[in-house]
Design goal:
Blueprint (H helix, E strand, L loop, with lengths): L7 E3 L7 E3 L8 E2 L5 E9 L10 H12 L8 E7 L2 E2 L8 E6 L9 E8 L10 E6 L34 H13 L17
Antiparallel strand pairs: 1-2, 3-6, 4-5, 4-7, 7-8, 8-9
Helix pairs in contact: 1-2
């Protein structure tokens, strides 16, 4: 399962939520356990849950299209999991990648972000927490992965495949670029860094 940022903790029990020690904000509806839903096609969000434009989502979809990671405009995900659902009720979370309507888990949130500190105005945010249910090794063909098991003799780097990035790996690459970008309100395009 994904990760939480500083100041976050995982509560236990059915319907567990990540909660911030300062605000106890529910960032998603959580499902515990593996929650494997097989392979699926996922949509890249280009609008925010409240209907406003989402320029970073538009940029992600365009970039994934440019690198050939999308199939019919959607991101193929192998060995998908369904551990989180983000809806309008989960403000301030922003879903980026969700399972399409034809999947075994329609609307399952595969990736979302939250700007921090929680409870501040969007223009005052200075950090970001992300959650990813993308298990990129599943699609990489490394180690002879069969969709369920990695061979016991798998060794890095000899077990790694010299091949183009999978669609899931390309999505992760974009996410890492976004994490290192300047924090901007979600309905605004990122600005270029100031050079001196």
């Amino acid at each position: 399962m994904g990760a939480a940022g500083a100041g976050m903790r995982r509560s236990r029990g059915a319907g567990a939520v990540f909660a911030c020690s300062r605000g106890a904000a529910n960032l998603a509806k959580w499902k515990t356990g593996g929650q494997s839903v097989g392979d699926l096609q996922a949509e890249i969000a280009t609008t925010l849950p409240d209907g406003r434009a989402f320029p970073r989502g538009e940029a992600m979809k365009a970039w994934l299209g440019n690198v050939g990671a999308l199939v019919n405009g959607e991101l193929p995900i192998q060995v998908a999991r369904h551990n989180a659902d983000v809806t309008l009720a989960n403000a301030p979370s922003i879903p980026w990648i969700t399972a399409d309507a034809q999947s075994k888990a329609p609307g399952a949130t595969e990736y979302f972000s939250v700007d921090t500190p929680l409870g501040t105005a969007a223009a005052e945010a200075c950090g970001r927490v992300v959650y990813s249910d993308l298990h990129v090794g599943a699609a990489s063909a490394d180690y002879g992965f069969d969709g369920t098991h990695v061979p016991s003799d798998a060794v890095v780097p000899t077990g790694c495949v010299d091949a183009p990035l999978s669609s899931q790996e390309s999505a992760l690459e974009f996410m890492l670029f976004d994490l290192s970008a300047c924090i901007t309100p979600p309905d605004q395009s990122p600005s270029l860094p100031v050079t001196r």
